[in-house]
Specification:
Dihydrodipicolinate Reductase, domain 2, 3 domains, alpha/beta, six-stranded parallel β-sheet, elongated, 37% helix, 438 residues, 17 strands, Alpha-Beta Plaits, Rossmann fold, single chain, 15 helices
């Protein structure tokens, strides 16, 4: 059987990894796919660099115009590795219109334009595969879409951005502040020169949006996700969390509730005895709670040339196996048949149920704790624990740490406003959400 022919749009870090792994493991990949998978065309703006990667004797055609790849009738699968929302969207839609299957690692594109892209692919009868878009080499999309298909998924919780996890791990282990560790992360190559998408939680929210759509059978709705980054986290809170038996991670969490779906990314206290709390450095991990299987954990490298290439090639193999299958008998892009997709709403943060860590800088005088606990009681917020730092001699203020049981976020917001107005609360209250993930 003749090989499947692949065109790469972009041959940067992931593209070069994909090309090299395909060439190195061609025999095993062919044995699994049932036929060869060959990159025969590459488009990259830097044509000379692209030629140096593929080699002059590889037989691969290198061009500077991605549309030449899409227009080539011999190309069966287009692999989009350009990134971003702009030209990548146009090229993916053009490839679909040309009847090409598409593999992409572009989580931003799919989180924002996925509904349009998946519908175009369904109408045309082609596949858009995106395992590499979430958590690099961890096969979490396949697990959610196929391996856990018997389950009613209750929640997903993930450390899905390696840059922020590296920063938080360093802050915890070395007691350093955020800005110092960010500079080190940039020096080591873990963080981009402009790290905004990572440190503000946007990258994690893109990935969570895709996982949530697959888990709950809802459209991709990145615009409704609640997103907070780690830029305001302080070393003091990481230290206090440790004393209380927790670690702070940037967590992506999507949970099914009776009245809708929670979709949120923010710093979160997680008990240290949970495996996911012990994921360090630039590694990723995703927990999934299903009603039949219980809790499962997926761990591995979330980025890098060959880990991500592993996911790209897995998609290529899947498409190769299914290329001749009736489109109606393929696994749907978002796991659920298009007519079975749900319109379950994404909950506003005021409606989310969670517990909280609060740090208050208060005057060191009698009656302060009583006034604060009274406000919490008035709002029906139950306290799980209290930690108070001992004041040094002559010091007139102290840190008061309060951990609550679960409550509705809107109720906590109203209580926080009242507590902040107390004359004995001297600085803005630090509020970090807490999840037991039990």
């Amino acid at each position: 059987m003749k090989p499947i022919k692949v065109g790469l749009l972009g041959i940067g870090t992931v593209g070069s990894g994909t090309f090299n792994v395909l060439r190195r493991n061609q025999e095993e990949i062919c044995g699994r796919a049932g036929r060869g998978i060959e990159v025969t065309m590459v488009a990259d703006l830097d044509v000379e660099r692209a030629r140096s990667i593929v080699g002059t004797d590889s037989g691969v055609t290198v061009v500077g115009d991605a549309r030449l790849v899409i227009a080539n009738p011999e190309i069966d699968i287009v692999v989009e590795l350009i990134g971003g929302y702009g030209i990548a969207r146009t090229l993916v839609l053009e490839a679909i219109a040309a009847g090409k299957h598409v593999v992409t690692a572009n989580k931003a594109l799919l989180a924002v334009h996925g509904t349009e892209i998946f519908e175009a692919a369904r109408v045309k009868g082609v596949v858009v595969a995106f395992e590499a878009a979430v958590a690099g080499g961890i096969p979490i999309i396949k697990a959610l879409r196929e391996g856990l298909t018997a389950n009613r998924i209750e929640w997903i919780a993930g450390i899905i951005n390696g840059t922020t996890n590296f920063i938080l791990s360093e802050m915890r282990s070395k007691g350093l502040d955020f800005s110092t560790v960010l500079k080190e992360a940039q020096r080591l190559g873990y963080a981009e020169t402009d790290p905004t998408f990572d440190i503000e939680g946007i990258d994690a929210a893109h990935k969570l949006t895709l996982m949530s759509a697959i888990a709950f059978g809802i459209p991709v709705q990145f615009d409704k996700a609640h997103v907070e980054g780690i830029t305001q986290l302080q070393a003091a809170d990481i230290k206090y969390a440790e004393q209380l038996g927790y670690r702070i991670k940037l967590l992506g969490l999507s949970r099914r509730r009776d009245n809708g779906i929670e979709l949120r990314v923010h710093p979160t206290l997680i008990p240290t005895h949970r495996l996911i709390a012990n994921v360090e450095g630039a590694m990723n991990a995703v927990m999934v709670q299903g009603d039949a299987v219980g809790t499962t954990l997926y761990y591995g490298k979330g980025a890098g040339a060959e880990p991500t290439a592993s996911a790209v090639i897995a998609d290529l193999v899947d498409i190769t196996r299914l290329a001749t299958a009736d489109p109606d008998h393929r696994v749907p892009h978002l796991a659920f048949q298009h007519h079975a997709m749900s319109n379950t709403p994404i909950l506003a943060m005021d409606e989310v149920v969670t517990s909280f860590y609060l740090r208050l800088c208060v005057a060191d005088e009698a009656g302060v704790l009583s006034a604060i606990t009274t406000i919490l009681a008035e709002h029906d917020i139950s306290i799980d624990g209290v930690l108070q730092r001992e004041s040094a001699d002559g010091e007139k203020q102290t840190d008061l740490i309060i951990v609550t049981h679960e409550t509705v976020e809107g109720r906590m917001n109203r209580a926080l406003a009242q507590m902040q107005a107390l004359p004995t609360v001297l600085l803005p209250i630090v509020r970090i959400r807490k999840e037991e993930l039990a």
